[in-house]
Each structure stands twice: as structure tokens, then as C-alpha cells.
Write a structure and sequence with these properties.
The protein is of the alpha+beta class. It is built from six helices and four strands.
């Protein structure tokens, strides 16, 4: 009969990962976001806005997108900044109605965050960021 032997380093890594998930929650789970995302990107882009537009290109199968869903967008400071100063639009690149918008903005990877002025002119873009980096990105966009 063979016995299973676990390398001590592998055992430590395994328990560290499991312990991190148990203590901090699964980073891939979807948290309820307090950002008030609009889903109809075409309508937002066609109409005049009173604030800059934040386009969030995402996909359900994208692990970094899931991390941002769980850790960045629910962050009270990030959500407050987005809701107060931007028109937030969530765009799932797998939806047929979003593909034209993704092509227009030449989206090559997700997550991609594109900031537009109120007239629809691109100001800046970024990819995966943590909450602190997202706040810096948004604050910089507000200064311009």
C-alpha cells in the first residue's frame, strides 16, 4: 500500500492558499457592487452626458475582472467616486450588442477601463487595478 507524502513546502502553500480564501473570502466570487452600473452603453454614448463616462469592459470568464468585481468596485471610496463624478457603464464583451462598442474602442483585453469626457472623447484607459490604483486613476482623470 502506497502512502501519500506531501512535501512540507507544498503543504504550507496549500494551507496558506486555503487559509487566505477562508479568512478573506474568495477573490473570484462576485460581490454586490455599490457602483450603479448602466448596461446600455450604446444609449449612453449616443446621448449627451453631464459627467465624464467610465466604460468598464469585462467578461464573466475573466479572473482579473472577477477580482475587481469582488475587491475594487464594492470599495466604498471607489464606488462613491464613480457614482458621484462619472456615468458608469458596464460592458460585457461577450454580448453581441457590445462587440461594436468594443471594436470602436479597440479593446484587446479585459478588464479595460476607458474614461471619456462628457462628449465621448477618450481621456484615458487602464487595465486591471486594485482599489488604491483605481482611486488614483479616477482622481487623475478628474484633474484633467
Amino acid at each position: 500500500m502506497k502512502t501519500l507524502r506531501l512535501n512540507p513546502l507544498r503543504a504550507f502553500f496549500l494551507f496558506a492558499v486555503i487559509g487566505g480564501i477562508v479568512l478573506q473570502g474568495n477573490p473570484f466570487s462576485r460581490a454586490d457592487s455599490s457602483v450603479e452600473w448602466k448596461k446600455d452603453g450604446a444609449a449612453v454614448l449616443k446621448s449627451k452626458q453631464d459627467r465624464p463616462i467610465l466604460l468598464r469592459f469585462t467578461a464573466s470568464w475573466c479572473p482579473p475582472c472577477r477580482v475587481m468585481n469582488a475587491k475594487v468596485w464594492p470599495d466604498a471610496e471607489v464606488a462613491g467616486m464613480v457614482n458621484e463624478h462619472f456615468v458608469p457603464v458596464e460592458l460585457d464583451v461577450d454580448r453581441p450588442d457590445v462587440r461594436e462598442i468594443a471594436n470602436r474602442f479597440q479593446i484587446m483585453a479585459v478588464p479595460t477601463i476607458v474614461l471619456l469626457d462628457a462628449d465621448g472623447k477618450e481621456l484615458d484607459r487602464a487595465n486591471f487595478m486594485d482599489a488604491r490604483e483605481t482611486m488614483e486613476f479616477l482622481q487623475q482623470a478628474r484633474k484633467e
